[in-house]
Amino acid sequence: MFANVRRDVARVTRREETWVDKAGTVCFNLGLHAVLFYRLGRWLHLHRLAPVAVLCSYVSSIITGAQISPRAAIGPGLRVYHPQGLTIGAGAVLGSHCTLAHGNMVGTFGDNDDRPVIGDHLDAATGAKILGRITVGDHVRVGPNAVLIHSIPSGVTVVGNPARVVLRAEAGEGHAPVSEQVPDEVVSRLVALLRRTVEVVTMPSQMDRSTGLLGEGIGLDSVEILKLVCAIEEEFELTIDENELTASRFKTVGSLAGFIHERSVP
To answer: CATH topology for 2-167?
Structure first.
């Protein structure tokens, strides 16, 4: 237990520069308190003190607003933002360095005891739900208010209800067409579609093939990517498979236009 606690605390306080700031975070961070209550309850449960473990979980729900069952197995480095409304059911399994937020639920889907098994480095946004007897890979991001009820592999981003993969980590994919070889018409239609569909603060006044879509540039998030994919399918009369939604294809306007052109050519 103590090794896990040290890693939980270290993750929450790593950006604090002074010992005073670190101590303040430990004393007043409700998300950390929810994690520490869980660690204590889990230790009690494993040492055959289940009634005391349940009491510990109950006290945590009153103080922090989070309900984390001591029968859930959670790896080290857990971080919780705003624990109110967070629920992790008995039997759920989470790996190391997971990040949870307000309104998350990891639990059963329907009237049964099936719970998810989740890998390392989960990042669940506010309101995200992961339900049922499913397996979730490592380095998965679940968007705001998404409801995930199907197993998914590692390295993907999912949004929506039911959740849909909108971005997949690169893994042995072929090279996308060179953007300079893509007809100007495809690029112009894509730029116009971006302006109609995407609502971001950083939308540049001028866009060309080199304009970035992720990070620097437009800075699309997972929700905007989903909206854009749906708009592309309608505009260009395509059906895009989840396996095709890789980060390299969304790197720039040119790379995305190249993918669209590749799919449009008979």
So the answer is: UDP N-Acetylglucosamine Acyltransferase; domain 1 (2.160.10)
